[in-house]
Design a protein that fits this description.
Length: 270
């Protein structure tokens, strides 16, 4: 069975952020991920990880002005210095948290933007970030994201992401394969798992129910079957990554909401 990591930005919102680590550990998770740690001191997060025996497996680089709708700046011309400063900060956090993966969001293209110029900036920034990350043994991830949730997002499909990884050619640049986004944009998820996991270019998987992004057992995807596909292909090719639980508990933020929705989880340990 795949190894599952709790996404503490979406799960356990019935608790304050720093208390979510304990809640995840109590439910049997041995690994966590989150979007952005930058509102908290790295030392405070590290102490929670250590206290509860948790491994940090993924975090995001700074995305620009999230509150104003920015969803990454790596592909935005003129923002290169800001991107590099933010990625250096992400590396500092990754080092402090012993986190091996940093997701770099491409960004939503402004109206009238030159797509080719944005693509060129994106490739250049990723190549630079991969070089910096390699020095500390960290992997850079890119993720295709659906345009229903992020209208205008540059990177939308698995094929685009894998072509970009091949074009940049950095051994520590990989794809973050989110099954939720893939289903919304493309479908045929099982076939894509069989095609892409053996390539060595998939560094992380994420899951959520479709269409509501709730628990994996809510919606149109048969996750019990897909977990079997991941197991089958992993046994053949040696893929040993984590599956991040990046969904919004359907019961909302009332006390116990996340725990009550974990009946889908095949096992509660990594």
């Amino acid at each position: 069975m795949p190894r599952f990591a709790a996404n503490l930005s979406l799960l356990y919102n019935e608790h304050a952020f720093l208390d979510r680590f304990a809640a995840a550990a109590q439910d049997g998770f041995t690994a966590v991920e989150f979007l952005f740690p930058y509102d908290y001191a790295a030392a405070d997060i590290a102490s929670r990880l250590q206290a509860h025996g948790l491994q940090q497996v993924l975090m995001n680089a700074p995305p620009g002005d999230w509150a104003c709708g920015e969803r990454g700046i790596a592909a935005l011309p003129g923002r290169e210095a800001e991107f590099r400063e933010g990625f250096a900060r992400a590396l500092d956090y990754a080092h402090a948290l012993d986190c091996p993966r940093i997701h770099v969001l491409a960004g939503v293209l402004p109206p009238g933007a030159d797509a080719a110029a944005c693509q060129a900036v994106y490739e250049s920034n990723l190549a630079w970030a991969a070089r910096q990350a390699a020095v500390v043994g960290c992997t850079v991830l890119i993720e295709p994201i659906n345009t229903r949730d992020f209208p205008g997002y540059l990177l939308q499909t698995q094929a685009q992401a894998h072509a970009l990884v091949q074009a940049v050619g950095a051994p520590n640049l990989q794809v973050q394969f989110d099954l939720y986004h893939c289903q919304v944009m493309e479908g045929d998820v099982a076939t894509k798992l069989r095609a892409y996991l053996p390539t060595g270019r998939v560094g992380h998987i994420q899951i959520a129910g479709v269409p509501g992004r709730h628990e994996p057992d809510v919606g149109e995807l048969n996750y019990a079957y897909l977990f079997g596909v991941i197991d089958e292909v992993s046994a053949q090719c040696g893929w040993d990554g984590w599956v991040g639980c990046e969904y919004r508990p359907q019961r909302g933020t009332v006390a116990g909401a996340t725990r009550e929705g974990l009946g889908w989880l095949p096992r509660r340990s990594g």
